[in-house]
Each structure stands twice: as C-alpha cells, then as structure tokens.
Amino acid sequence: TEKGITVMRTDSHSFGAFRYFIVPCEQMSLFDTVEEKRATAVNSFFSQLAEMKKRNWEIKGKKHLLVCNTKLSEDIFICKFSKETTKTIFKESDDDIENVDEPDYPFIYVIFDTARQIALIELKTSVFSSLNQAKEKLKVCFQKTFTLFGFEVFFEEITDSSTFWNFVSDSYGVYDLTLTLNSPNLFGGFSNTNEMLKTIKETYNNSQTTIKLSSKNPNITNLTQQNTLLNDAIDYASAGGGEWSLTVAAKDKEKRTI
C-alpha cells in the first residue's frame, strides 16, 4: 500500500483504487433535480471523451491530457492520463549537433467504471511522484469541467475497513475518532449512513459531514463492529465515501494519530 491506499498489481502495472464523488457546489433549482443534472454532467464528460478521444486542460502552465484508448462497455473506459514535460534531444545541424527541447507526454493508465464511480489510477513514479499527486491532478481536470454544471469533485481512496478495526483492537484506548463523510452520491449499500447523510444534505445543502468523538483520556467506548451505526459509517468511508482518523494510546502508552 501507499500511505494506506490499497494498491492492486498486475504482471506489469500497479493501480490504486479511488471512488469519485460529484456533489453540488450550489443550490439546485426546484425544476432541476440533483440526480438529473449530475447524470447529464457525467454523461457529457464521458461521452465527449469517448467521441473526441482526447480532452486537455492546463494546470500551472502545463498541458494535461486524458485520452480514451478503449471503451469496453457503456460503463468502462480505459484511458491514458499525461502531463506535459520537456525532453532534450540532439539533432544534427549543418556544422554541429544541437540541443533541442521538445514537449514530451509520459502517461499513466486510468480505468473508469462510471456505474460504480471507481477510478483505478496507475502508480508510475516516473510520471507522477505518487498516487495522491496523480489523483489530485485528475481531480483538477474533472473540476474544471464539472464546475460548469454546478458540481465539485472529490476522489477518495478505497481501503479495507478491517484496517480501522485492527488499529482499534491493537491500541490501549482511543482519544479521538474523526469521520469525514461525503454527501451520498450514486453508489449505495450502506443504508444507515446514506439515509443520515441524505437527511443532513437536504437540511443544510452541505457536501461533507464531519463527526468527531473526543476524550481527554483514552476511554471512548462502544468502538466495536457490533455497533451497527459506526460499522456502517466505517464501511462507507472505506469504500471511498470519505475518510477516518484515530488518535490512540498505543500498547506502549504513546499517543499516536493514524
């Protein structure tokens, strides 16, 4: 893993799994439902990508390309994602060999599953220094398009929920638990958390909800998988719906934040 991100490997490629959220950044009209407008925005983005084969954006003066290589189905897109760099080549002139700088576009593979809102991002440090850097660049590109429809975009890593429970069970006690959950989007399966976030969203028109439990001593109780509300929320976050952090008293009694 890379800093907690689950990395999947094939014979020659390694991928990090992320779930992307497309949430309103403005109040929608009564005559324009969020679901309809979001579906229009998503369809517009990916249908244009498939039709044009290539989209480009400028980030800090550098061109970034997203190229659709293969559309495996209505929902699966295999793409290349690149940022512009410069390489020096050596060319023969009439009486010398000259240095010539030319644009270069090293790339990573990104696989999109639009039905499940999943992006598999290749880890290739020769192109982007980390999965997080690649994810952030991709997020900026998405944001430049989806802002035009009134949405903002989040990418959250998909992790194993057992990681959270292992940290809890291996600690002496818990000082703090913070859950940051994105407002419900298109993926489901976590009914309790989805319903709670949907109610909060309808009340406050927010894009994220943060829940924090804190104690001066490491004695927060009921942090068990039998606590169905908490277990559901951890599953939601681990599936790419947000993130969690813990401050624990480790077995050596040292205070650590995870």
Short description:
The protein is of the alpha+beta class. Helices cover 28% and strands 39% of the residues. Strands 1, 2, 3, 4, 5, 8, 9 and 10 form an eight-stranded antiparallel β-sheet that branches.
Structure in words:
The chain has helices spanning 34-52, 131-146, 162-169, 191-204, 228-241, and strands at residues 7-9, 14-24, 54-59, 62-71, 76-83, 85-92, 97-104, 107-113, 118-122, 151-157, 173-182, 208-214, 242-249, 255-257. With 258 residues, the protein is of the alpha+beta class. The strands form three sheets. Strands 1, 2, 3, 4, 5, 8, 9 and 10 form an eight-stranded antiparallel beta sheet that branches. It has a four-stranded antiparallel beta sheet with strand order 12-11-13-14. Helix 4 (191-204) crosses helix 5 (228-241). The chain starts with 6 loop residues before the first strand and ends with a strand. The mean pLDDT is 86.
Structural class from helices and strands?
Answer: alpha+beta
Share of β-strand residues: 35-45%
User: How many alpha or pi helices?
Assistant: 5
Helix coverage percent of residues? 25-40%
H and E order: EEHEEEEEEEHEHEHEHEE
- Mean of residue pLDDT values: 86
* Overall geometry: globular
Overall strand count = 14
The profile of the biggest β sheet is: 8 strands, antiparallel
Alpha-carbon distance between the two ends:
15 Å
Report low-confidence residues grouped into runs of 5 or more.
Answer: none
Rg over CA atoms: 22 Å
